[in-house]
Amino acid sequence: MRGCDTLDAVMPARLERASVSMPPRQSGTAPMALYTFDPLTDRRWEDLVAVHPNASVFHQTRWLRALAATYGYKPIVVTDASPTDKLSWAIPFCQVESWITGTRLVSLPFADHCEPLLPENERSSGFVDWLCAECDRQGWRYVELRPLKWTCGNSPLLASISYRFHTLDLTSSLQDIFRRLDKDSLQRRIRRAEREQLAYDKGRSENLLDDFYRLLLKTRRRHQSLPQPRAWFRNLAESLGESLEVRVARKNGTPIAALLTLRSRETVVYKYGCSDERYHHLAGIPWLFWKVIEESKAEGAKLLDFGRTDFEHDSLRRFKDQFGTICQQISYFRYPAKAAKPINTTNLNKLRRVCSFMPDTLLSAAGSLAYRHMG
Predict the structure, then answer these.
(1) Residue 171 or 151, more confident
(2) Core vs surface per residue 177-216: b (16+ CB within 10 A) or e
(3) What is the DSSP letter of 22?
(4) SS3 at position 224
(5) What is the per-residue pLDDT across 70-108, written as a single tens digit (0 to 9) for each?
(6) C-alpha–C-alpha distance, residues 294 and 173, integer Å
(7) Whether the model pTM is above 0.85
(8) What's the pLDDT score for residue 251?
(9) How wide is the angle at C-alpha 204 spanned by C-alphas 225 and 360, nearest 5°?
(10) At a CB cut-off of 8 Å and minimum separation 6, what does 27 contact?
(11) What homologous superfamily does CATH list for 166-330?
(12) In angstroms, rounded to a whole number, what is the distance separating the alpha carbons of residues 105 and 375?
């Protein structure tokens, strides 16, 4: 596939034009021409991500490549730049096609946030007009944006779900950061882990990924939920390279806790954590987070992104608060808004009960089948 092409060639959902001129929102405004291209083959996207101040690890081509390799999602980028022009703004999407959850356009699947790389002027509203009109024309179930700071203003895009979002400022001294940790829940437990002389490995080898995934299966079974497929983590490690790290804590050679983090510029992103509950008294998870903080500061990072937290998950929210993090609310926006349907709790509870009894191989296989439809 060429780096930039007409809409119908790039988009499998029958987008038909190389550019779309939207009617003006207000009298006297000019119509807007938009183009799409494949970010996996067009270098302009990676060039924009490399310099844009709002770009994160989730914008990177490497994240998009892992999504495509694992789940078959089709990445596209929408912009006002013609195929021969340099990008001044753009926004990535993945087209998710599912006979269970419907066809939709998401920016981006399994990303905690994905800030639209848009300018702060009227062109933003023209992009939203195009997005909503295209959703109607294609018959998609919905389109979804997952911004961190950007707001949709007066537009058909409405907030569909909100989360808590925690970050930790790493610019203070290590001593000050430790002093702000909760004394009982974190400081004393980290010291306990140090007295226990837990062993520690860091990297992205197959052996570390295997240890991480076995702990993930234990954690997901304990939480009565499905795990991501093993291939997702392998593809992430292969695509992201040195930007991904797995940390595993061990007691007498036994893996007891693990964290997976991502790195982009001066920000480290906590993405996945898991543990063996039989060893929770050894405080492997708090100790690993402290390792992340120590090493991230030593490598010049200035921010630790703790990711999103469901509003009903109070225990996780309290855990993140205990690090002295800053908490804000982030919202995902959808069109049409009615697409955000409440979860069928009866069916969800049935699935959770089944998950708690599945053997590892079946639990992993179920996750592989289900996650493609969840993006």
Answers:
(1) 171
(2) bbebbbeebbbebbeebeebebeeebebeeebbbbbbebb
(3) B
(4) coil
(5) 999 999 999 989 999 999 999 999 999 988 888 999 999
(6) 10
(7) yes
(8) 97
(9) 30
(10) none
(11) Gcn5-related N-acetyltransferase (GNAT) (3.40.630.30)
(12) 10
